[in-house]
Every structure is written in structure tokens, then in C-alpha cells.
Inverse folding.
């Protein structure tokens, strides 16, 4: 029986409309101009890395690999 050791779930990116949000945890932040830009960037990033989009409210989305 194999044991899965290592990181299995992690945040890949933050997409936000909040220009005051600054990086501090090593996860890249991408800024969006409006809600359409926010949704479009999140969809493209999630599809390209095989991640899921989660809404953190207040115009911020995160891409998480499960």
C-alpha cells in the first residue's frame, strides 16, 4: 500500500480587484480591472494549471490545486 507524502492542496494564485492587497505569502497576485476581467483571468489560470477557483468575497478569487 503506497503512502502519498507531500503537498496535495495548495494555493496557486490570487486574483483581485483590490489594488491594496500585497503579496506576503509567496503566492502570486494578479490584479483585475473589473469583475469581468477578474472572472476571465481566474478561468484562464484555473484551466491552464488544473486548479479550482474559490471566491473569497470582496472582489478576490483564489486558484487552488486539490
Amino acid at each position: 500500500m503506497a503512502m502519498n507524502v507531500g503537498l496535495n492542496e495548495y494555493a496557486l494564485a490570487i486574483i483581485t480587484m483590490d489594488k491594496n492587497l500585497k503579496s506576503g505569502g509567496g503566492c502570486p497576485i494578479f490584479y483585475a480591472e473589473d469583475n469581468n476581467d477578474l472572472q476571465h483571468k481566474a478561468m484562464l489560470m484555473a484551466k491552464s494549471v488544473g486548479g479550482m477557483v474559490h471566491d473569497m468575497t470582496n472582489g478576490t478569487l483564489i486558484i487552488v490545486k486539490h
About this structure: The CA atoms of residues 32 and 49 lie 19 Å apart.
